[in-house]
Amino acid sequence: MKRLLVFIASVALLVSCNCTDKISVMSFNIRLSPNDQFDGDNSWLYRKSAAVGMIQEVSPDLFGIQEGLFDQVNYLNDNLPEYGRYGVGRDDGQERGEANAIFYKKERFEMLDCGTFWLSATPDSVSRGWDGACNRVVTWTRLKDKKGKGKEIFFFNTHFDHIGTIAREESGKLIVSRIKEMVPEGTPVFLTGDFNANYDNSILAPIRGFMKMAREESPVSDTLNTFNNWGKTVPMDGQNIIDHIFCKNATPFKYETLTGSYGVQFVSDHYPIIAYFNI
């Protein structure tokens, strides 16, 4: 009888595990291409094939980029045919300026809806927020997970201002407000980005109060800096973790800072980060 109960419990656990869908989400600041004149051997010209190779090797289900100008976005799009993408330029809502483009595996996801809002007091039009130094946007998609029997997920991707005090404080509040407004209760939602703020910075408090930070919640994780500055002097590990992956209604079980070379010394001045979730 005892053996029978153990067997039944094991089968129930197996069935439970098989009913859980897993999803991988990556954030990657690719370093914009006009800085080639400053980056020398680290310019996009020499890194772009390695960036594609890294993405193909890691094979995230979803990923969001930051600092992507459209020559870079189109290069990734052309060389990663397995992914669909959405993203517009922050300076005109079309192709001018940086794009926080979102990429998703077409085999797994169908994009149901998408959009962009600006981190500003007038988020639904091209605008610069508060005291920000640049236009900043949030790119979002609503996706149907074909593997998850039609379950929907939302994916948001952003890049916070690096200077404006008010802009940095208000951006997280606006993002949380929009997610609450847009995402149905219980729906898995992911937020990636370069937040230009270390993980313990108070400007992240609105997001932290609403979502989980994958790096902290994952039982398998690390404390490596995400900004590498091309290997030049940076603070000790844990003091420059400025790229983050947040989640809600999903459980992270692994987080990793991707410090591999992938054929070049650095694929960007930021290390890509990836998190794996049960949903």
Keywords:
alpha+beta; six-stranded mixed β-sheet; 7 helices; Deoxyribonuclease I, Chain A; disordered N terminus; 279 residues
Q: What do these coordinates show?
A:
The protein has 279 residues and is of the alpha+beta class. The chain has one domain (24-278): Endonuclease/exonuclease/phosphatase (Deoxyribonuclease I, Chain A, 4-Layer Sandwich). It contains 7 helices and 12 strands. The strands form 2 sheets. Strands 3-4-2-1-12-11 form a 6-stranded mixed beta sheet. It has a 6-stranded mixed beta sheet with strand order 5-6-7-8-10-9. The chain starts with a helix and ends with a strand.
Write the layout of secondary structure elements.
Blueprint: H1 2-18, E1 22-29, H2 36-39, H3 44-58, E2 62-66, H4 70-79, E3 83-86, E4 102-105, E5 109-118, E6 137-145, E7 151-159, H5 165-182, E8 189-194, H6 205-208, E9 212-213, H7 214-217, E10 243-248, E11 251-257, E12 273-278
Parallel strand pairs: 1-2, 7-8
Antiparallel strand pairs: 1-12, 2-4, 3-4, 5-6, 6-7, 8-10, 9-10, 11-12
